[in-house]
Amino acid sequence: MGRTRVKLVLLGTVSASVFNFRTSLIKELVARNHTVYVLCVDYDDVSREKIVALGAIPVDYSLNRAGLNPIRDLVDTWKLFRQLKKIAPDVVLSYFVKPVIFGSIAARMAAVPRNIGMLEGLGYVFTDLPTGLKRKQRILRWVQVFLYRLALPGLDRLIFLNPDDSADLLSRNGLKAKNVSILGGIGVDLEKYPYIPLDSQKSPSFIFVGRLLAEKGINEYVAAAKKVKNLHPEARFVVLGGLDEENPGGLSRLELDDLIASGVVEYPGHVSSVIQWLTDASIFVLPSYREGVPCSTQEAMAVGRAVITTDVPGCRETVVDGVNGYLVPRWDAEALAQKMLCLVRDPALVARMGEESRRLAEQRFDAEKVNARLIQMLLD
Fold it and tell me: Of the four listed, 7, 88, 180, 186, which is most buried by Cβ atoms within 10 Å?
C-alpha cells in the first residue's frame, strides 16, 4: 500500500489541533499524491479554506468530545460509520481518546482496510495526582478501559508516543492490540524553530508554556519561582497559557491576578508568537504530572533552550538528565527550585545545555523524519 496512491482519513477533534500539529503531515501526504480527508467537529469557513489550501478535503462530523452520554456517542458513531462508508478510505488514522475509541469502531463497521489509532497521551483520567485519584477520575478510568477493551481489537495498529503509555494502558489493564508502535514525539519543524543562541547579557529567565492546570505543574512552577525570586530578584518567570477556571485543578483569574501583582511571574496573556517568547527565555520549565511527548518542550529544545521537567511518562523522553537539562520528581517544588538555582548560578551551563537540546531535537524530533516514520506505520 505504501507505494500506491491511497485515500486517507485523519479523524481528530478540533481544527486548531490540525493546524498546530498535523500541517506538516498533511503536506507530506499530499506531496506523495495521496488523497487526504480531514474530519473535524468545529469547522467554519476560514478553517475549511485553510484545509483546502493544504491540499486536503475538510469534512464535518459530530462527536461529543468531553461528554458521557452513551446514546449520543452511539448516534455519533453510527453517523460516522455512514460517512466513512461513503468516503471509502483505504486508511483511517484516529487520534485523541474519543476518536480512537469511537472512530475505530466506526471504521471497523465501515470495513476500512487499515484502521490505525494514535494515543498522544493517556490524558487526565490516567494522570496520578498528589491528592490521590478522585472518585470521578476512578469511574472515568474504568469507563475508558471498558471502551478501549471494545475498540482496540479492531485496530490494525495502535501508536503511542512513549513506551510508558503503552505499558500503563495495555499491560496494567490486560488490554490487547494487534500491533503496537512507539513513535516518539510528533516532531517539530526545525526550520520554523531554528537554533538561536542565548543572549549572555540578559538576566536568567524561565518560561512555562501550557494550560494553567494543576496537572501541568503550574502550582509547582509558581512555588519554585517564589523561592528562586527571593534569592535572585533579577530572575524572570514567564507564564504562557490559557486559564481553565471550569477545571477543578485550574488557576482562577483572581489567583492569577494576585500572582501578577506580586511580581513573581509575568503573564502576557494571549501572544501571537510563542517562538519569540521561547527565544527570549533562558530555560524552559514543564513540571507536568504526565504527557504524551509535549510539543512545547520539543519547540523549546529546537530553539536551543535548557529544559527542566519532571521524571514522568512523556516528559522524561525530552531530557537526558544533566546533559540538556534536569529531571525532577513530580509534585516537588523544592527540587524544582534547586535545579532552577543551579542554572541561575551557572550561565555557561545553561548555554551548553541549550546546545545539547538542539542536538537532541535534531536527532529525535525532526518533523520530517517523524512524519516519514508515521507514514510508514500508516501505509505498510
Answer: 186
